[in-house]
Amino acid sequence: DAGVIQSPRHEVTEMGQEVTLRCKPISGHDYLFWYRQTMMRGLELLIYFNNNVPIDDSGMPEDRFSAKMPNASFSTLKIQPSEPRDSAVYFCASSFRAFNSPLHFGNGTRLTVT
Amino acid sequence: AQTVTQSQPEMSVQEAETVTLSCTYDTSESDYYLFWYKQPPSRQMILVIRQEAYKQQNATENRFSVNFQKAAKSFSLKISDSQLGDAAMYFCACSSNTGKLIFGQGTTLQVKP
Question: By C-alpha distance, which of A106, A97, A112 is closest to A29?
Answer without folding.
Answer: A97
